[in-house]
Structure formats: C-alpha cells, structure tokens
C-alpha cells in the first residue's frame, strides 16, 4: 500500500474520530506507539515489530490528515536520496 492510499484509508476509517480527538491527543497516542515500537524492536518477535510499525505509520497518517499534510508530497524530499547533500548513499559528514 502506498502512503497516499493509506492516508485515504485512515481518513475513511477513523477521520471523524481522529478530528474529534484532536491533534494534541493524537500526538500523545503517536508517542505512546513509538514507545511500544521501541520495546518491540528491542525485545519483541517479528510479528510484534510488524504490528507496532503498522500502528506508528497509521498514527502518523492520522496526524498528517489532521494537519493537512500529504505524506507523498512531504516524503518527496527523500526521493533522490539525502535531502541535505543529495547523494545516495548520503555523503554528509
């Protein structure tokens, strides 16, 4: 699934609820999910890591929707490699 499609799915599925929750609460949920991802990466199974990665990306999509950010457009800055030096692999010091 591409990010733009994910954003549309998240909007259809959770958009009304996400807007009612608001940006500050969504940021808090995202932070909690990042913590769960960190724990899964350190001590979890592959299935747990996949679950937590999916949750983090879904919360990022929710936050992007609430703030009017198109993730495909936002991530275009990485399309050709490092956004700072332009190289791939990065040659920044």
Automatic annotation (TrEMBL):
Pfam families: MazG (PF03819)
Coiled coil ranges: none
GO MF, one annotated term: hydrolase activity
Domain NTP pyrophosphohydrolase MazG-like: 25-77
Signal peptide range: none
Record's keyword terms, sorted: Hydrolase
Keyword Heme: no
Domain of life: Bacteria
The keyword Glycoprotein is annotated on this UniProt entry: no
Protein name: NTP pyrophosphatase (Non-canonical NTP hydrolase)
Native organism: Phycicoccus duodecadis
